[in-house]
Amino acid sequence: MPKTSARLLSLLSLLQTRRDWPGALLAERLDVSPRTVRRDVDRLRELGYPVVAMKGPDGGYRLDAGTELPPLLFDDEQAVALAVALQIATTTGAGIEEAAARALNTVRQVLPARLRHRVDTLRVTAVDRPAIRPEPQVDSDVLMAIGAAVHGREVLRFDYSPVSGPARATAGTSQGCEGTPAAPSGSAAPPGSPTGALPQTPRHTDPAPPPPRRVEPHHLVTWGRRWYLVAWDLDRDDWRTFRADRITPRTPTGPRFPPRELPGGSVAAFITARFRGVEATEGPDGVGGWPCRGEVILALPAAEVLRHTREGIVEELGPDRCRVVLGSWSWPGLAAAIGRFDADIEVKGPPELASAFAHLATRYAAAAQPRATPDP
Q: Model's pTM, two decimal places?
């Protein structure tokens, strides 16, 4: 019996790792005969696990979805991962904090004493960065509707609400990144960015609501505690990025569509380029997508620079010298980012970066001069 019980747990663990399992492969993994696999599958069904048999020459088994949730099987690493994920769910911006807390309590109650003790010793305090105003929360039903359309590759129709609060300019490309944040203050706006505030509607008019957007949804992503939908806009014939908290899905969804190739080669490259306000291009160093890219020699060890550089290229040239390639929104912004290393700098190029250092040097020198106090 102990041997049979251990084999059942191993079989259940395998069935949970992939959708379909050929019977011969299960028998090979468990080092038993196909007949023993069939008997063990019957035992799992008696315990309430909905294991479906697939017929044919390559027939096998699948752990199907049932009307009732049977006991779950977690190894030590899975239990710890689940506990951590549920405890940091408060920083997802998906409005699932209470549900995550209840789920963690439910999972904890069914864990064996050994795993329950290990999970209880891991207490994570999720602290989010302070913000000027609260980040918008997304209704979980909206995320489910968007996710279902992405999974089913069905055309999604939705109303897209305007930005709440004061009208402000947003940075984007000529392709029209809908939810891309503006460039940092004082930096040059990316090409194609709108330069003025959003147009104000006269008070005496009552404009008709805009028609619903029609898109082919491809990816649901998170960036900086916000949820975004990456989709092909059918009416604008181009890629768009929409903030999920401004989406109100309409039903029913439209017809199915074949997937398109995303610019940049991956959703990570595409969304990063959109937030930088540039075209999505493939690049191995992670800096080619910035509007401004420069190269310098710093009088610092490469290891010291790497501690404070999240992206870019750092190449060791000697004990106290390294080559650094970085990108930024603007040339003054790039010069200021390099200057924070507090070391001698040799500009290798381009000339715009050297001009930005000269511009900042003049500005800093003027700021260092004492100013006369005006008479009262």
A: 0.53
